[in-house]
Write a structure and sequence with these properties.
By secondary structure, the protein is α/β, with parallel strands linked by helices. About 35% of the residues lie in helices and about 20% in strands. The protein has eleven helices and seven strands. A seven-stranded mixed sheet has the order 3-2-1-4-5-7-6. Strand 1 (about 40), helix 4 (about 50-55) and strand 2 (about 60-65) form a beta-alpha-beta unit. Helix 3 (about 15-30) crosses helix 4 (about 50-55) and helix 10 (about 190-200) packs antiparallel against helix 11. The chain is globular, with a radius of gyration of 18 Å.
Length: about 250
């Protein structure tokens, strides 16, 4: 996994900046329950998305485990960010109307612990909104994807939709809708993909050793239009609702 302490310095400029953040924030807002007043943004990063959710009305708190990310987020949301591990949140039960986690679950193997904590801090009637199938979204059917596809381990993705559905159900959360948004600025280029492949940036899905990396990098270098971005991905955001009556379900460990 990337070191987000060092990634913070250039995270926004390499991740689509404001256009992508606005698209993500809009998707989260579309899935919030009517009248939601408080929202916890898990792995808020630099706060670019968090700030835009807050601008739409909800009282938002951002949480992240990386100091450098929180420094950036704190400049955007003074007094409204906290350092926290998403598996052990420093908040009481039923404290938020909504929880969101954009681009988090695909990174970590402890997805179930995160879902469990999110369910705990949600109020009855609240909603958890999370991105699912994130890495799969980057396969847009391009010439780059044709080379990479045989080496994608989609079935092992921590955030695959079916797995997240099951984890949510195990903690008493019911499906409450989905939406998509465009990953502006995330269209891959052959040269950039080869560079990221060599740097180990695709560890969450890439299956292959050094020889495979070398062969793929050579194949990528042979593609035309080395610096022309291919189509932007479309990310999927799924929502899960906590029943309005807590005694209407039996949460399973």
């Amino acid at each position: 996994m990337l070191d987000y302490e060092t990634e913070a310095a250039h995270y926004d400029e390499t991740r689509g900046g404001v256009p992508r953040a606005e698209a993500a924030a809009g998707a989260v807002l579309r899935l919030l329950p009517p009248g939601a007043r408080t929202l916890l943004d898990l792995a808020c990063g630099t706060g670019l998305v968090t700030e835009r959710i807050a601008g739409a009305g909800p009282r938002v708190l951002g949480a992240d485990a990386a100091h450098a990310m929180l420094r950036a987020a704190g400049s955007r949301l003074p007094g409204r960010v906290v350092r926290a591990d998403a598996r052990r949140l420093p908040f009481p039960d039923a404290g938020f109307d909504a929880v969101c986690a954009v681009w988090l679950l695909h990174l970590v193997p402890y997805t179930g612990e995160i879902v469990a904590e999110a369910a705990r801090v949600l109020r009855p009637g609240g909603v958890l909104a999370v991105t699912v199938d994130k890495d799969a979204a980057h396969d847009v059917g391009s010439d780059i994807d044709a080379l990479l596809r045989p080496h994608r381990a989609a079935s092992a993705a921590h955030d695959r939709a079916g797995r997240v559905d099951a984890l949510a159900a195990a903690h008493g959360l019911a499906p409450a809708g989905t939406t998509t948004f465009t990953g502006h600025g995330q269209g891959a280029t052959p040269r950039g993909t080869a560079r990221r492949l060599r740097a180990g940036a695709y560890a969450s899905w890439f299956r292959g050793g050094a020889a495979t990396v070398d062969a793929l990098a050579a194949a990528l270098a042979a593609l035309p239009d080395q610096d022309r971005p291919r189509r932007d991905p479309e990310y999927r955001l799924a929502a899960y609702a906590k029943p309005a009556r807590q005694d209407s379900f039996a949460a399973r460990p």
